[in-house]
TrEMBL record:
Keyword Transport: yes
PROSITE patterns assigned: ABC_TRANSPORTER_2
SUPFAM superfamilies: P-loop containing nucleoside triphosphate hydrolases
Protein's name according to its UniProt entry: ABC transporter ATP-binding protein
ABC transporter domain span: 1-252
InterPro entries: AAA+_ATPase, ABC_AA/LPS_Transport, ABC_transporter-like_ATP-bd, BCA_ABC_TP_C, P-loop_NTPase
Signal peptide extent: none
Length: 271
């Protein structure tokens, strides 16, 4: 059984079919990338999994359970955490406080215990702190732990958002363009973190990413979309070499170059 199963899903926005009869499966422990030109439907797929949208047809299962029965606020409790294209953090709060928000789904103590500062509540608070400190260490965020988000550079905010998702100890992480807006060095760090998230933490990763260099380096499997439908699926090298992908990318300038770069990287070349 796959961890995530997207089964013949269709989603329409009025007259526009943003996702067309799409199926794919993500296995536990994989890094799986969704790629494709602007408007291909990648973010819509994420929003379907997060339950922000309900498909017109098809099924979505996570660990064998029907995700479509859930409300969006119930999805994190099933072990799915996500980051957003436009970083979503509490800007006036510190890094530590934002990461503690990521622990929300694990909070057990009732309101009375919290208000009365009962021992059960204090023990729980210590456990949350410990979990968050682990994430701070893992992502090298010690220098920023007490800094407010509003004063931090974009690249650091991006890592904090990743940390907030990791603090919830998810089984699957949805990363929406983890490298967008990052410098070459920050993108390189992101690559190592994604590798470690999978290897050390055992978390399955589904990501949408335009940086084909990063996709080629970290992904086990790649699904290329265009106009909401599947173009090709396979290893990064297989997808890059697929005639439908080449045809879709031909003549699109920088995107075509990016696809070629993905092939270089998958073949062992590239930086
Ligand atoms: N809320 C919405 N209402 C109407 N149309 C939408 C909505 N969200 C997305 N679309 C349309 O659905 C299609 C798929 O959009 P989507 O954002 O999923 O593409 P994408 O592959 O993530 O693109 P990008 O790489 O630019 O983020 C596009 O044609 C887009 O204009």
């Amino acid at each position: 059984m796959s961890l995530l199963d997207i089964d013949r899903v269709t989603l329409k926005f009025g007259g526009l079919t943003a996702v067309k009869d799409l199926s794919f499966a993500v296995e536990e422990g994989q890094v799986f990338a969704l790629v494709g030109p602007n408007g291909a439907g990648k973010s819509t797929v994420f929003n379907l999994i997060s339950r922000f949208y309900t498909p017109a047809a098809g099924a979505i299962r996570f660990a064998g359970q029907d995700l479509l029965r859930l409300h969006p606020h119930q999805v994190p409790a099933r072990g799915i955490a996500r980051t957003f294209q436009n970083i979503e953090l509490f800007h006036q709060a510190t890094v530590l406080q934002n990461l503690l928000v990521g622990r929300h789904r694990h909070r057990r103590a009732g309101l009375a215990a919290q208000l009365l500062h009962l021992p059960s509540m204090r023990a729980e608070e210590r456990a949350h702190r410990l979990a968050v400190e682990e994430v701070i260490d893992f992502l090298d965020l010690q220098p920023y732990r007490d800094a407010r988000i509003a004063g931090l550079p974009y690249g650091v905010r991006k890592v904090v958002e990743l940390g907030r998702a990791l603090a919830s100890k998810p089984r699957m992480l949805l990363l929406d363009e983890p490298a967008s807006g990052l410098s070459v060095e920050e993108t390189q760090n992101m690559r190592w973190w994604i590798d470690d998230i999978r290897r050390q933490m055992g978390i399955t990763v589904l990501m949408v990413e335009h940086d084909m260099g990063l996709v080629g380096k970290v992904s086990d499997r790649v699904l290329a979309l265009a106009d909401g439908a599947r173009l090709a699926e396979g290893t990064p090298a297989e997808v890059q070499a697929h005639p439908a992908v080449i045809a879709a990318y031909l003549g699109t300038g920088p995107t075509a170059k990016a696809a070629a770069h993905m092939g270089d990287v998958a073949a062992g070349g590239g930086p």
